[in-house]
Amino acid sequence: MLRKITVALASVGLLAGLTACGSSGASDDPDAPLKVAVNPVPHGDILSYVKDNLAAKEGLKIEIVTFSDYQQPNTALTEKQVTANYFQHVPFMEEFEKKSGKKLSFVAPVHLEPLGVYSKKLKSLQDVPKGATVAVPNDPANEGRSLKLLAANGLLTLKPDAPASATERDITSNPKGLKFKPLKAAQLPRSLEDVDLSVINGNYAIEAGLAPNKDALAAEKPEGNPYANGVVTLPENKDDERVKKLVKLLQGPEVKKFVEEKYKGSVLIAS
């Protein structure tokens, strides 16, 4: 009986070890595939282009792990299921660090998805009625970003020192009496039927068939924009040669051409 128990425990330990090794995205082997978490559009599309067309020339193997929301890519990174992710901007990363107590490292910017104000009911921001309902992202970094876009287009005024994570408490003037409806970013395109305006993140706008440069009533400008999406990893992996190769490819001329031809201004290469 004792021998059977010992063998059983050894088997369980071996199985657990295999599972742990299989689920970890980190590796000391420079030739191991680099696991990267992404959102499907445009990040997954861009990374697939790199994987299929450019990576082999750099001796880089890429494994793409796709998530449809903004929370799981960072969870996968901190739990070491992946070695890097590519979906977020610095203000979002900093909010995650603040809430989670985890440290991340923003390695390099790649592209900007302009945040846009969309409507199925209005043709212009001049038509916004009193008491209009505006859907905005419910994560602090992108909610603040939305309020700043509305302020830049004259719909409200924020405190001069309003942070990146500005909230309604930072509004000093709201002449239209706008009512805000925070929603998960992925739900914003579907909110267009129910609200007067919806401030939609670029990736979800593109997935919904909306083009920031054509369909938005207002959109962010690229100049001096702090919201470029880029490659993020754990601090101990920021000098990983595979991560450096990935950044080199994502910032290269081939990716710039691919993005310009595929997205036609809806996604902009970070300058």
TrEMBL record:
Signal sequence region: 1-26
Compartmental location: Membrane
User: Has UniProt tagged this entry with the keyword Membrane?
Assistant: yes
Q: InterPro entries recorded for this chain? A: Lipoprotein_NlpA
Location, primary (coarse class): membrane
Q: How does it sit in the membrane?
A: Lipid-anchor
Indicate the family of this protein. Belongs to the nlpA lipoprotein family.
- What is the name listed in the Swiss-Prot or TrEMBL entry for this protein? Lipoprotein
- Per the UniProt entry, what species is this protein from, by scientific name? Actinomadura decatromicini
Organism lineage reads as: Bacteria, Bacillati, Actinomycetota, Actinomycetes, Streptosporangiales
